[in-house]
Structures are given as structure tokens and as C-alpha cells.
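Entry 12.
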Amino acid sequence: MMEKKWGEVQAIIAAGEKWTDPDFPPQLSSLINKRHDQGNLTKYRQIEWRRASDIFDEPQIFSDGINPTDIQQGGLGDCYFLACLASMAETAECVEARFVTKEVNDAGIYLMSFYINGIKTPVVVDDYIPTRGEGPCFARSNDGELWVCLMEKAWAKLYGTYARMEGGDPAFAAVHLNGSPAKTIWH
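Predicted 3D structure (C-alpha cells):
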């Protein structure tokens, strides 16, 4: 399944035209579902979607290595996911392995993988990032790399909306990021 999806992504990159994800478009419905999500609708209406190239001077997925300190939480309550991501970043290869597309491309399409029911599953996102003001309003990298924004966007796509991923269990995120069992122990 990954190889087939990678072939499709490569064809879109080769075409050289900007790509917009039809399944997770840059609009309010990808931020919050008015019927199913809790949260402040006004907060999400103030968000503007911008391409990575419109936010960063020279966007790169990875520029100076992957470190836990790269991750900066934004205005979304997804610290459980970001904590798991930071834990993975202790071994940079773990994060890099989630990315099939490892270079910025003109089409703005990125293929990553998550584990769904233990199966490595492709997740494709475009490079439209939710912004407020000059930069990303949700998670971002302290040094301007895209990997944090793209991982969070792929997680939001799996959830259905950004609002739906507010609050969660790190073990749940770990299972989907690492493909191995995880358990939360309350003490």
C-alpha cells in the first residue's frame, strides 16, 4: 500500500502544480466540525490557512537535525501527542522513518506513515498550515522546520479535525506513531 501511494505522490510532485488535499482541505471543516466537536468555534474562525512557502523563507522538513527541543506547542491542547513526538525525537531516526517525502517540493504534498491497527498506513497531507498572524498557530518547530507542523496535521487528519485531537492519552499516540503496544499507568 505504501509503494502505491508513494507512486501517486511522486506523480503529483512531477506534475509540478500546487496540490490541495481534497480529504482534508484548508477550510473550517478541517479545523472543527460544528456538529461533533467541542471547542470555541470563534477561535477556529480566526485562523487563516497559508502554504509553508508563504510562512517560511526557505521551508525545509529537516534542516539541522531532529531534537525533542524542536517542538513548540501552539494554541491546541495536544500536548499528549507532542510529548510522544518529543520522546520519538530522542532518536531522530524514529521521526525520520515516519516521513516518506523527506524534501520540500513545489507541489506541497507530503507522504508520512502512521500505524493503524498495527498496520503501517500512508497519510498524505498538503503544506497548508493553520496560521494566526505571522506563523503557525498550532505546533511548530523552534527552528522553522516543517516536520512538527506536518506531523500534527497528519494526526489531525487521522482524527478528522484539529479540534477533535484536543486532550488525549500519550499511549494512544504512541501506538499510532511507533506501531508497538503502549500502556498508560496512573500512579
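Annotation: The longest helix spans residues 2-15. The longest strand covers residues 109-116.
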